[in-house]
Specification:
By secondary structure, the chain is α/β, with parallel strands linked by helices. The chain contains seven helices and 14 strands. A seven-stranded mixed sheet has the order 6-5-4-3-2-1-14.
Length: about 250
């Protein structure tokens, strides 16, 4: 298992940080977790074409997390770049309603005309799971918007990644991150700039400590984070291994 951060930022344009997105190599699959604007270009920088991705996981329907999705579906129908490999897309019922709305607005250009697209709806109210070839996916409800989920990916007989997406504090995060080898956790603002619906470094550290996670990677940084000592604030509650996400960072559990 290897995680590559495609975008460590937010909806705010930044020359340093792209909108949220991650690439996970797990088993024989290439999995993208969230696909904010610019994800397709950053994916190419990571050496992966859009049609090589086997799974797309959407944590919720905010544009900075799904803004590239319609482009992705459209691109898969362009004659010189059309997709032939199957694609599985996972998300909440809210994500699926958003997809249906995009199809209604943009028409057949978003259809899977040359490949098989499988939609997997994960429960928004309670933990749910699904198995794939060589790995499994569990989804947990979190406190952000109604469509929000966090994901836990476990390689068969191997490593575990927990990815919070956007969230405020909730006990479900402890179940999500419990014993995870790698915890990719949002930390949108410094401790003194708490935004409802998001975490701060100290809150992220408390989740990692209570869950007894392995390595922590903080991500989803609004601009004030780049002026703060985010790691020192994390250390108020967490003394284990930790990194700050940067676009292009690759890490193994």
């Amino acid at each position: 298992m290897e995680l590559t951060v495609l975008g460590s930022g937010t909806s705010i344009p930044s020359l340093r940080r792209g909108a949220p997105g991650s690439l996970l190599r797990v088993g024989r699959d290439l999995v993208v977790i969230d696909c904010g604007p610019g994800t397709l270009n950053r994916l190419l920088k990571a050496g992966v074409r859009h049609d090589e991705v086997t799974h797309i996981l959407c944590t919720h329907t905010h544009l900075d997390h799904i803004g590239e999705l319609a482009h992705w579906m459209f691109l898969s129908n362009i004659s010189t770049m059309e997709r032939t490999r199957p694609l599985t897309l996972c998300g909440s019922a809210g994500v699926m309603r958003m997809l249906a709305g995009l199809r209604e607005m943009m028409g057949h250009w978003l259809d899977a005309s040359s490949y098989t697209r499988t939609l997997v709806t994960m429960d928004e109210a309670r933990a749910s799971s699904v198995g794939f070839d060589g790995w499994s996916l569990a989804a947990f409800p979190v406190r952000h918007i109604d469509s929000s989920l966090a994901f836990r990916i476990t390689e068969s007989g191997g490593a575990t990644l927990a990815c919070t997406g956007d969230t405020d504090t909730t006990d479900d995060l402890i179940d999500l991150a419990r014993g995870a080898d790698l915890l990719l956790i949002e930390s949108s603002t410094p401790d003194e700039g708490k935004i409802p619906g998001h975490l701060t470094p100290s809150e992220a550290g408390d989740v990692a400590r209570r869950a007894r996670a392995g390595r922590v990677v903080l991500t989803h940084f609004y601009p004030p984070c780049d002026e703060a000592d985010m790691l020192s604030q994390l250390r108020r509650t967490w003394d284990g291994p930790a990194l700050l996400a940067e676009d292009g960072l690759s890490v193994r559990p």
